[in-house]
Amino acid sequence: MLLTKNVEEKYNITRQTLYNWVTKGVISEPLKDEKSRNIWSEENQKEIERILNEKEQLSLDLQIPEKLHIQNRRYLGSKQKMLNFIFDVVSKNTVGVETIADIFGGTGVVANMFREHGKSVIVNDILYSNYTSFVTWFGNEPIDEKKVEMAIIELNDLKGIDGYVTKNFGNRYFSVENAQKIDAVREKIEDYTDFNLREKSFLITSLLYAMDKGANTVGHYDAYRQKMDSLKPLTLRMPVVNHSTNNEVYNMDANLLVREIKADLVYIDPPYNSRGYESAYHVLENVAEWKKPEVEGLAMKAVNRSEKSSDYTKRKAPEAFDDLIQHINSKYIVVSYNNMAKKGNSRSNAKISNEEIILSLEKRGKVTVFETDFNPFTTGKSIIQNHKELLYLCEVGAMENA
User: Fold this and answer.
1) pTM across the whole model
2) How far, in Å, CA of 115 to CA of 121, rounded?
3) Whole-number Å distance between alpha carbons of 91 and 120
């Protein structure tokens, strides 16, 4: 008879893996000793040895119960609930749209919606963590799915180690055990030398989504909960594989990117308020890039984040927006906006007004405004009344009297 810790040491597997196998009915449930500890009989051990010997043939469902989808994460300003509204406006009011650029991509759900409808997409974000996810969801590079799947099994089986994440974010944004697991997984990903860029992006994306699910936060990393209540062990899942050939993925300042690309329609959803995404998702940025920067303050943010800060969160936002609009090369421009105005927390209020958006768009063509009701996400306790999500559709080159 062996205790669980002895089984972990003997077979180099984790407690979570044993739990998964018992839950799936792959091995028998262990007995309990007088202290209610699990004890593993010789029959249990034979079952474990059988699984390890047949591991290459095991169903991935033992480790990854369901595939990971692009929308399976929390994100400030996500347009997941607005997808039908956006698609309805575009499909009914445009013609000849085959290529769509989403230049403030965020989670990528808007670009993915158009991809699912057969469009070629250009997707961009200034955050490297989002870019890494885009390579996973929209990349054209072929991948060895079996190799990636087996790597995720291996990563899930790793024992945690003390490292950068444990030191800076353990017992803050993550339980110590999950922070140790993140350290072990991220270091192991760095060790893989026979993975192409997209295959490695699959592994990092899987880790980032697992971190989001297990984070001791309300969906962003401006702060963490004072009470650690996110104790469920971290589990990586295999991202769904999308087979693409004509997509483009960028990690650039949007105002510079629009000077280089051409699309039938450009979709714009910039960060209108002072909540910089480089700060809200600094933990994910650190793990994605794995440069291990020095951190500071209660929130443990990287000391230097200025290179990723956006003009759209500052007073110069209207000028930045106008510069962007005037340099877009497309038949249509679609802008997402909400009428937060002065309704919420001061950091949530928009830096660009409705009038400024229309003024910039009207320099390029005919503008039509569509609206729908929407319950906004706010990071404070504001109660928002009469909230609307707006879509501005600009037909470039067309005049109001045309």
Assistant:
1) 0.79
2) 6
3) 15
